[in-house]
Specification:
alpha/beta; TIM Barrel; Lyase, Ornithine Decarboxylase, Chain A, domain 1; seven-stranded parallel beta sheet; 31% helix; binds pyridoxal-5'-phosphate
Length: 348
């Protein structure tokens, strides 16, 4: 028995891609960010489903992910690498036909020296100060880069999930200044930027989290369901405690179910402390009680007439962002932490 059963809805992911694609109104392309194994959901299954939905431009974090993705997708789709051309990447970039988004003068020099004529793009820093060529570096390199035919010029917004943040407009202005007249398609928006409006779309939007059902794309169709098997049940008398640190005490005669999943499966230990985390039996909420262990968690099932074989951690009543809120984190982290011990099912 696995520690839980994770169902990944490929049809929902494809539907989210189509809905985000429709935001562009046909005037820009829609890529798909599948870094970190498609946000933990399995790039080898997710990316082909997105390709079938119409995606032609894929984005990964590093060349190694790109090489694995090329095997899953076969020849044809473009695969861009956010980390660019790092030291030691030349063979992978060449063999898997990857497009590094060059981030620094060193990377530009390395790529043109080791793989002259190979495809590339550029990533520009417009204010996030994380990755990308700084305006000063770019001034010196722009003509050289432009002359070699970049396939894409991108930048990334730091606060796109806050539509009113002044950094959005400032980064937009800087991006326009840095890329005006450049002989390459341009892309500024991830999920948050795509929702800001057409001015942010340029030639391509590149959503990640929105495909997988997460905020800031509030209209997304949820893409994951997680059910956890009950290992054991017991009655607990008033005053008895449950779990590590004797942290929870029964104040009524209680029925407690122990589930086969814990923080080693990516369930944040903090949900045990929050006091308001639940699992679901159908529509009925069962509070998570006591501390989350490495491989186990405990649930108050006193109010259930009958305890099912499995209880739902992620379902229509509690999505990735609701669970994230309880743990003081974000849906992205919930998804990318989903454990390798879960039995994975893909629904098409
Ligand atoms: C992760 C990432 C994306 C996708 O972001 P989401 O918020 O998941 O849509 C797009 N562009 C870059 C540079 C990224 O690092």
């Amino acid at each position: 028995m696995a520690t839980g059963s994770l169902t990944i809805d490929l049809a929902a992911i494809a539907a989210n891609w189509r809905a985000l694609d429709a935001l562009g109104g046909g005037s820009c392309r829609t890529g798909a960010v599948v870094k970190a194994d498609a946000y933990g959901l399995g790039a080898s299954r997710v990316a082909p489903a997105l390709a079938q939905a119409g995606a032609r431009d894929f984005f990964v974090a590093v060349a190694e992910e790109g090489a694995a993705l090329r095997k899953a997708l076969g020849p044809g789709p473009d695969i861009y690498v956010f980390a660019g051309h790092m030291n030691g990447d030349a063979a992978a970039i060449r063999d898997a036909d990857l497009i590094p988004l060059l981030n620094s003068p060193e990377q530009v020099e390395r790529h043109f020296r080791l793989l002259p004529r190979a495809a590339f793009g550029v990533q520009l820093d417009t204010g996030m100060n994380r990755l990308g060529l700084e305006p000063d570096d770019w001034r010196g390199l722009r003509d050289l880069v432009d002359g070699n035919g970049p396939r894409l010029a991108i930048s990334h917004l730091a606060s796109a999930d806050e539509p009113d943040h002044s950094a959005n407009a400032a980064q937009l202005r800087t991006f326009v200044e840095m890329t005006e007249g450049l002989n390459a398609p341009r892309s500024l928006a991830a999920t948050g930027g795509a929702l800001l409006g057409r001015a942010w779309h340029f030639d391509m939007i590149r959503p990640g989290i929105g495909l997988y059902g997460g905020l800031p794309y509030a209209d997304a169709v949820p893409a994951v369901r997680l059910s956890l098997p009950v290992v054991q049940q017991r009655d607990v008398a008033v005053g008895e405690s449950v779990g590590y640190g004797n942290a929870w005490h029964a104040d009524r005669p209680s029925r407690v179910a122990t589930l086969a999943s814990g923080y080693a499966d990516g369930l944040p230990r903090a949900i045990g402390q929050s006091g308001s985390a639940k699992v679901y039996a159908g529509a009925t909420a069962c509070p998570i009680i006591g501390r989350v262990s490495m491989d186990l968690l405990t649930v108050d099932v006193t109010d259930l007439d009958e305890v099912p074989d499995t209880l739902e951690m992620l379902c229509e009543h509690q999505g990735i962002d609701a669970l994230a809120d309880l743990a003081g984190t974000i849906g992205y982290e919930i998804l990318t932490s989903l454990g390798h011990r879960y039995e994975r099912h893909y629904a098409a």
